[in-house]
Specification:
single chain, about 130 residues, alpha+beta, 4-stranded mixed sheet, two-stranded antiparallel ribbon, about 40% helix, Putative phage metallopeptidase domain-containing protein
Length: about 130
């Protein structure tokens, strides 16, 4: 059985804060977006985002919160620009209401996909 381990990822949080500022994503409260690095997952993803659902917010008295989990075995090997794109992708799942919910990859005319990530990255790099 594989051991799963998780630790704080301050380096990822710093990149995320910089991206939020550069892209003027004012609706994202960076103090309530936590970043962790996990090891031992068999997932193929570079990263994933977790939202604290309303029922947990209500029952436990927590505010809306998000966690960006980077999977060390994949994410840590990436070049800096690719890491930024992965983080942009995860941030695009956060709705403007910052409610703890997550946007799907496809919803009406909204898309979280490679084209949208590239568009945001180019806007940031200007």
């Amino acid at each position: 059985m594989r051991k799963w381990d998780v630790e704080d990822a301050g380096d990822v949080h710093a990149i995320m804060v910089d991206i939020v500022k550069q892209l003027n994503m004012r609706y994202i409260d960076v103090e309530r977006v936590f970043c962790v690095r996990s090891r031992g997952s068999s997932a193929r993803a570079y990263a994933r985002i977790w939202g604290l659902s309303r029922i947990f917010q209500f029952a436990a008295g927590y505010p809306a919160t998000y966690v960006i989990e980077v999977l060390a075995q994949h994410f840590d090997k990436l070049a800096s620009d690719r890491k930024k794109k992965v983080i942009i992708h995860e941030l695009l799942h956060i709705p403007k209401t910052f409610s703890g919910a997550l946007k799907s990859h496809k919803s009406g005319s909204y898309r979280v996909d490679h084209h949208e990530v590239e568009r945001m990255y180019k806007r940031m790099e200007k």
